[in-house]
Amino acid sequence: MKDKEVKNLGLRTEKMTINMGPQHPATHGVLRLVLTLDGEVVVGAVPYVGYLHRGIEKIAENKTLHQVIPYTDRMDYLSPMSNNIGLCLAVEKLIGFETTEKCRVMRVVACELARISSHLLWLATDALDIGAGTVYFYAFTEREKYYDLFEEMTGVRFTVSYGRIGGLARDWKKDFEKKVYDVVLNTPKCLDEIERLLTRNRIFVERNRDVGVISREDAIALSLSGPNLRASGVEWDIRKAYPYLGYERYKFEIPVGEHGDCYDRYLIRMEEMRQSIEIIKQALKEYDPKAPLWPEDNDSQKVFYPPKEKVLTSMEELIHQFMVATKGPKTPKYKEIYFCIEAPKGELGFYIVGSGTNVAHRLHFRSPSFVNLQSLPIMLQGDMVADVVATVASLDPVLGEVDR
Amino acid sequence: MGDFVNQQWGENLDETIEKLKNTFKKSILSIVKFRGETTIVVEPTNLHNILEFLKEDGFNYLVDVSSAHFPEREEIELLYLVRDLISKRQLRVKTSLSVEEPRINSASDIWPGANWMEREVYDLMGVIFEGHPDLRRILMPEDFEDFPLRKEYPMEGDDEYRNFLRPGEGE
To answer: Which residues partner with B75 through β-bridges?
Structure first.
């Protein structure tokens, strides 16, 4: 019935304000939404964030740069690998040093493994929010294999702290690359299985298509990034635009959507996982287990960790390791850099101002989830209240990163 | 191997900078290049016009708004990082505001995406954006009074959030 008809019948209508979250299973953390509803239609949505604010930027101004690395794990806790490595790359850019070839290859593999594991978790929770409970178990079984890889790679499953300025915390064990290869080779089977369950599933399509739409122009104007921007039809990927870690050498495609709705965002992330697998396969071919992980020239060794074998046998390097671990590299005074990587959620940027000491004067994170979340009111406008859950899930926010 | 340390922020930036210099003359204070990045330092009074000019020049994407406090100069630096998604140019526009009265025109009418980014700067650094549609605290509690990212704000305190000791207080 139209508004007028309702009024003619003498019925009283009014808008209703309801609160969703911060404790709500479908908000993926502590997101609070205040929804204004006209019947079942959302006419306004105001997100409230900050329930998980820990002041990481303030803490980072008072810690040495190596000490900041574990804090970045707790930002986007679903892909700590790419956060660590992004920070390390940013610091390396500020102090002007590059890492070895082997380190770059290992970082690419680590970053892409993080992307797949993060997208698998998104897939599980997105499907669960819409009501497809089975997918949750399939995706988590697959994700478990990736966490086993992380465990073997770093010794930790969740908050890995694997990055070090100039290198990585430890070398891979013998034949580890073959294990990675085996795992990524089997993932497409799992993805195929899940796609058979979802992609043409009538219920899933109806719940996702033309829901949470954001146009190409709005997406650019609102600074969306990552898969959410690409789903709106913008071909933009930091890995292609400003290549880092040698991404320009790997062949991969950027999936681009058309409609900017939840269904496109689903398709894009599914394809991104397959592309990541391709990148990992190419990177593993270039992996040389015998090459050095840390740079061996003298200049670099004053900034980065010395090779572990030398630390255990030579006095000089032992002292050196102690100095690097306790003090870390000096940053140039009041010089500033911005460095961004394509994290699973979007563009993760680091703005660092040097202080002349080993502590950054200012360390600002441009976190993708925070910026992505501000387009939620536009996406929800005019949708049904049941679509709120689907839209929030498809946006893939991680509140640890939003609130920092 | 791509030299990422000195990766350039777009190739035809000089043209844009020349045009900016011709249009705004004295408002452009200096141009800093470091590690392939270009920063233009501008007068706060003309910041909004310069950002509008850049938007028309093709910088359609606002990447980031950030700030830094420099206590010895008693200044807060405010930075807008803008990007052209087509030609991949990037540019950082920087301006200095006094700590006592950090006021500036909001850029959220140029890029709606500036909304939350500026709210974050207001919340943590205390810069007041005039003409901002919704200038409220975003990360800190609504009744919070201080601006934690300023350098004088202490790292430690003895209460949950309100009763932190200021320097010189207590004991």
So the answer is: B70, B98
pLDDT profile of chain B (171 residues), mean per 10: 65 79 82 85 89 88 91 90 87 90 89 90 90 88 84 69 52 49
Residue B140 sits at the chain A interface (C-beta within 8 Å): yes
Whether A307 is covered by a domain: the verdict is: no
Confidence check on the interface: ipTM exceeds 0.90, yes or no: no
Closest CA to B120 of B138, B94, B99, B98: B138
Nearest chain A residue to B70 by CA: give it. A361
Distance CA A348, CA A345 (A): 8
The residue of chain A nearest to residue B86, with distances taken between CA atoms, is A236
Kindly give, in sequence order, each residue whose CB lies less than 8 Å from that of residue A14, ignoring residues fewer than 6 positions away. Answer: none
Cβ of A245 within 8 Å of Cβ of B4? The answer is: yes
Structural domain span for residue A150: 48-97+99-294+329-403
Tokens read off for B57: 């020049």
Q: Is B164 on the interface with A (CB under 8 A)?
A: no
For residue A397, the domain's CATH number is: 1.10.645.10
> Could you tell me if residue A321 is inside a domain?
no
Is A283:A184 a contact under the CB 8 Å cutoff?
no
Residue A288 three-state SS: coil
Specify the number of domains making up chain A: 1
Residue A366 lies in a domain: yes
State whether residue A277 is helix, strand or coil: helix
Alpha helices in A199-261 (DSSP H): 202-208, 216-221, 227-231, 238-241
> Span B2-104: which CATH code?
3.30.460.80
Facing B88 at nearest CB: one of A97, A241, A334: A241
CA pseudo-torsion sign A268, A271, A277, A278: negative
CB pairs under 8 A between A and B: 110
**How many distinct helices (H) and strands (E) make up chain A?**
19, 8
Q: What is this structure's pTM?
A: 0.88
Please state the φ and ψ torsions of residue A245, each to the nearest 5 degrees: 55, 20
Torsion A384-A49-B125-B77 (CA) sign:
negative
Evaluate whether residue A32 is within a structural domain.
no
SS (H, E, C) A29-88: CCCEEEEEEECCEEEEEEEECCCCCCCHHHHHCCCEHHHHHHHHHCCCCCCHHHHHHHHH
